């Protein structure tokens, strides 16, 4: 179906599809508008809803708004209305891509939505989600958060079977695997069960057919996915904050490997792929998730405050003020201040209209973005010894510039405390952590990093304290980027 603006369409599968021009896309200039040289790493947010009373597109819009921190490159919504699938997606923020008229055209009784960060592929609509397909069994719409570790093997296998891929995203591989399994199975949910049982890596999925809404987590539980209710509506989201933002109530989180099927308001669970394992990405607590979310029973806000407390106990310093780097460093700074007794203050003013520099792919753009994004508050820091708390150091360039901002504003000393251990290895499961060549901790000691960044002192959260970060979490963790020990093989070998 082609709607107004030419972007509400159905994909043909596996043949050709319509690919209309993105409205105004040629005029978009962004700090994230550059291709990263290596890696197929994404960190995204997903939302899904079944609501017999309709208004699903509008609810999904607000749900994606709440998940905007997980993806600022592109977004999209797909809906089912009387078993007819439509969608709209484009590059840009949720508020930029959707307007009232578009949402009205998309209304239906089911919807899935997605916000995207990407470090590979051009900033183009075809790499945005939902991935929508039309094949002999009907239609599917798929939204995915995570990253597969066996992309090359899967792509080669499917291409030899005649598959034609239209994106550079591994999410399309998942959609193809589900559609292929459906050709030989009795139901969509069994196809999802069969397909994901053969995948390796991180994937929280929501799949929509004309009659069913299906949510699924990978058997290792790398990425979060929760379920809630709002009256007769059933909701799924990457984080609990999205469910609460639309007036819903969090019911529970999906277990690793669990598949939840919603059909005509009835909810049932399939646990064939559940292995009793859990390896939640610890960086959800440190950086990605919103502080008002609860993941695996652990408040993200409390986890970050706890990180700051642990830092203060292990790495005290004489200072006059504790400040946090917005946004994910703020709670950790508050914890450091509470534990140390040093006053907490607002050290930075943030431009809310600039995306996260951590995920800005190009180094030059990243460096330019820092001063646009942050300014130091001179009245707060001038003449003071400052403890600056941030969530991580990846390449080292960004924190160097932030320290420089504090010194330019008159800080006499800057002591940096980091609420994560040093990164020594890439992430293969969906976080934009680059290869070892660009990880500063792989090549330099803490003292060397201190000198390179211009800090008066520098200390990181220790690995043993990392284990204490989220004491209430009902899950295990993946800490591979800090330890080089991953829950599953990442070199393409089989378990």
Strand arrangement within the widest β-sheet reads: 3-2-4-1-10-9-11
Q: Strand share of the residues?
A: 15-25%
Going by CATH, the homologous superfamily of the largest domain would be Aminohydrolase, N-terminal nucleophile (Ntn) domain
CATH topology tier name of the largest domain: Glutamine Phosphoribosylpyrophosphate, subunit 1, domain 1
Q: How widely separated are the two ends?
A: 43 Å
Computed Rg: 22 Å
Query: Helix/strand-derived class?
Result: alpha+beta
Query: How many helices does DSSP assign?
Result: 16
Overall spatial form: globular
List low-confidence stretches.
1-42, 357-361
| Whole-number count of domains | 2
Q: Helix proportion of residues, in percent?
A: 25-40%
Name of the CATH class of the largest domain:
Alpha Beta
CATH architecture of the largest domain: 4-Layer Sandwich
Q: Quote the average pLDDT.
A: 86
Largest sheet: 7 strands, antiparallel
In total, how many beta strands?
A: 23
Quick gist of this model?
The chain has 495 residues and is an alpha+beta fold. The protein has 16 helices and 23 strands.
Keywords:
495 residues, alpha+beta, Glutamine Phosphoribosylpyrophosphate, subunit 1, domain 1, 2 domains, 16 helices
How would you portray this structure in words?
The chain is of the alpha+beta class and 495 residues long. 55% of the residues are buried. Strand 21 (413-418), helix 14 (446-453) and strand 22 (457-460) form a beta-alpha-beta unit. Helices cover 28% and strands 24% of the residues. The protein has 16 helices and 23 strands. The longest helix has 15 residues, at 300-314. The protein has a seven-stranded antiparallel sheet. The radius of gyration is 22 Å and the shape is globular. It folds into two domains: 4-278, 4-Layer Sandwich (Glutamine Phosphoribosylpyrophosphate, subunit 1, domain 1); 299-483, Rossmann fold, CATH 3.40.50.2020. The chain starts with 44 loop residues before the first strand and ends in a 12-residue tail after the last helix.
């Amino acid at each position: 179906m082609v709607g107004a603006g030419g972007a509400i369409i159905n994909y043909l599968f596996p043949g050709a599809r319509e690919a209309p021009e993105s409205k105004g896309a040629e005029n978009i200039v962004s700090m994230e508008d550059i291709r990263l040289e290596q890696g197929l790493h994404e960190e995204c947010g997903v939302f899904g809803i079944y609501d017999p009373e309709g208004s699903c597109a509008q609810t999904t819009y607000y749900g994606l708004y709440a998940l905007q921190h997980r993806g600022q490159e592109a977004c999209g919504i797909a809906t089912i209305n009387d078993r007819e699938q439509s969608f709209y997606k484009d590059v840009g923020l949720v508020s930029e891509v959707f307007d009232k008229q578009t949402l009205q055209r998309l209304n239906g009784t089911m919807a899935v939505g997605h916000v995207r960060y990407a470090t590979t592929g051009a900033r183009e609509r075809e790499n945005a989600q939902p991935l929508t397909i039309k094949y002999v069994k009907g239609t599917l719409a798929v939204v995915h958060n995570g990253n597969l570790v066996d992309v090359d093997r899967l792509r080669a296998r499917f291409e030899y079977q005649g598959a034609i891929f239209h994106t550079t995203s591994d999410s399309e591989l998942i959609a193809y695997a589900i559609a292929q399994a459906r050709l030989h199975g009795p139901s969509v949910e069994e196809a999802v069960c069969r397909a994901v049982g053969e995948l390796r890596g991180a994937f929280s999925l929501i799949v929509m057919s004309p009659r069913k809404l299906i949510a699924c987590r990978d058997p290792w539980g790398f990425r979060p996915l929760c379920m809630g209710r709002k009256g007769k509506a059933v909701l799924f989201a990457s984080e609990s904050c999205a469910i609460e933002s639309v007036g819903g109530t969090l019911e529970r989180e999906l277990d690793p490997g669990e598949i939840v099927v919603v059909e005509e308001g009835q909810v049932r669970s399939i646990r064939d792929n559940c292995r009793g394992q859990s390896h939640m990405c610890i960086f959800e607590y440190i950086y990605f998730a919103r502080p008002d979310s609860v993941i695996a029973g652990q408040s993200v806000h409390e986890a970050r405050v706890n990180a700051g407390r642990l830092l203060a106990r292990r790495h005290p310093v004489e200072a006059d003020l504790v400040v946090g780097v917005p946004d994910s460093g703020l709670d950790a700074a508050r914890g450091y201040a509470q534990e140390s007794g040093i006053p907490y203050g607002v050290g930075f003013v943030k431009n809310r209209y600039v995306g996260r520099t951590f995920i800005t792919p190009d180094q030059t753009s990243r460096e330019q973005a820092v001063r646009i994004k942050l300014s130091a508050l001179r009245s707060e820091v001038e003449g003071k010894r400052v403890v600056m708390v941030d969530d991580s150091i990846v390449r080292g360039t960004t924190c160097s510039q932030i320290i420089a901002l504090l010194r330019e504003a008159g800080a006499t000393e800057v002591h940096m405390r980091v609420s994560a251990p040093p990164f020594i290895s890439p992430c293969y499961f969906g976080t934009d952590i680059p290869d070892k060549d660009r990880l500063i901790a792989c090549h330099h000691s803490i003292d060397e990093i201190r000198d390179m960044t211009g800090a008066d002192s520098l200390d990181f959260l220790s690995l043993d304290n990392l284990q204490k970060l989220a004491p209430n979490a009902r899950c295990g963790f993946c800490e591979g980027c800090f330890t080089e020990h991953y829950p599953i093989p990442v070199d393409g070998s089989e378990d």
